[in-house]
């Protein structure tokens, strides 16, 4: 494996509740990127209004802090070599 491949991890985005489903839901992100990057991406991709929020969940239970590195979340919570991140426009769990 090349060094750049080792620095990236696969994440899978899954819509919950009223959140729109994305056409593309699998991404490879750099391990050092923060989960805030995912939140910002989802705000744009789902056309959130300024007053709307995106809620992110890992394991359908806990919401990571926005400064959590993708690599750390992946190392602690990935299954089948993917980090599954559920997203919603309203609080869904926990």
TrEMBL record:
Pfam families tied to this protein: APG12
Key words of the record: Autophagy, Isopeptide bond, Ubl conjugation pathway
Alphabetical GO biological process terms: autophagosome assembly; autophagosome maturation; autophagy of mitochondrion; glycophagy; piecemeal microautophagy of the nucleus
Cellular component terms (Gene Ontology): Atg12-Atg5-Atg16 complex; autophagosome membrane; phagophore assembly site membrane
Entry keyword annotation includes rRNA-binding: no
CDD domains for the chain: Ubl_ATG12
Superkingdom in the source lineage: Eukaryota
A GO MF label: Atg8-family ligase activity
Keyword Transmembrane: no
Subunit description: Forms a conjugate with ATG5.
Family as reported in the entry's similarity comment: Belongs to the ATG12 family.
UniProt function note: Ubiquitin-like protein involved in autophagic vesicle formation.
Protein name in the entry: Ubiquitin-like protein ATG12
């Amino acid at each position: 494996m090349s060094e750049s491949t080792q620095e990236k991890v696969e994440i899978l985005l899954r819509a919950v509740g009223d959140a729109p489903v994305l056409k593309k839901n699998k991404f490879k992100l750099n391990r050092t990127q923060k989960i805030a990057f995912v939140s910002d991406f989802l705000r744009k991709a789902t056309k959130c209004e300024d007053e709307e929020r995106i809620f992110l969940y890992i394991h359908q239970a806990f919401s990571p802090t926005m400064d959590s590195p993708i690599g750390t979340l992946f190392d602690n919570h990935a299954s089948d070599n993917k980090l599954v991140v559920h997203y919603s426009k309203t609080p869904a769990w926990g």
